[in-house]
Amino acid sequence: MTQLLGVRVENGEKTDIFEAFNLEDVILVDTIKPKNHSVPCMHTNYGAFACMHTLSECKDFLGDEFISLSNGALARLNQIAFIVDYGYTVTVYFKDSHLTGDLAKTKRKIKPFCDLMIASDFIPETF
């Protein structure tokens, strides 16, 4: 059984209620227009759901553990190992991971990011 996470839709509008639903229960897929674009809406016998389509919706669901790195990325704050400002880019390194993210240059002086900043010549071999 495949579960999806969606935002409950009532009267053609997204609500603030996040809910898991079973893909196998989908009967109809049509669209709603929450702003100026169409979003798929999946209908089941126990409700209609739209999947999250914006980082803002993801942030609302994920909560305060996640912080915006830029207009295009969220990160779990307690998983950031350190941040390096290379001048041309600001890179976020994560604990026990090969993943990196880009931090908006405008955010590099904002707490908690500035507390995690290290000089580029002090990057650990392993972290």
Shape: elongated
pLDDT < 50 runs, ≥5 residues: none
Helicity, in percent?
under 10%
Order of helices and strands: EEEEEHEEEEEHE
List keywords for this structure.
2 domains; 46% strand; single chain; 127 residues; 11 strands; 5-stranded antiparallel beta sheet; 4-stranded mixed beta sheet; mainly beta
Report what the structure shows.
This protein is mainly β. It folds into 2 domains: 3-56, no CATH class; 64-122, no CATH class. Helices cover 9% and strands 46% of the residues. The protein has helices at 55-62, 113-116; strands at residues 3-10, 13-22, 28-32, 39-44, 47-51, 66-70, 73-76, 80-85, 90-94, 100-102, 117-118. A 5-stranded antiparallel β-sheet has the order 2-1-5-4-3, with no helix packed on it. β4 (39-44) and β5 (47-51) form a beta hairpin. The longest helix has 8 residues, at 55-62. The model has no long low-confidence stretch (mean pLDDT 87).
Architecture blueprint of SSEs:
Layout lengths: L2 E8 L2 E10 L5 E5 L6 E6 L2 E5 L3 H8 L3 E5 L2 E4 L3 E6 L4 E5 L5 E3 L10 H4 E2 L9
Parallel strand pairs: 8-11
Antiparallel strand pairs: 1-2, 1-5, 3-4, 4-5, 6-7, 8-9, 9-10
Brief sketch in words of this structure:
This protein has 127 residues and is mainly beta. The chain is 9% helix and 46% strand. It has helices at 55-62, 113-116; strands at residues 3-10, 13-22, 28-32, 39-44, 47-51, 66-70, 73-76, 80-85, 90-94, 100-102, 117-118.
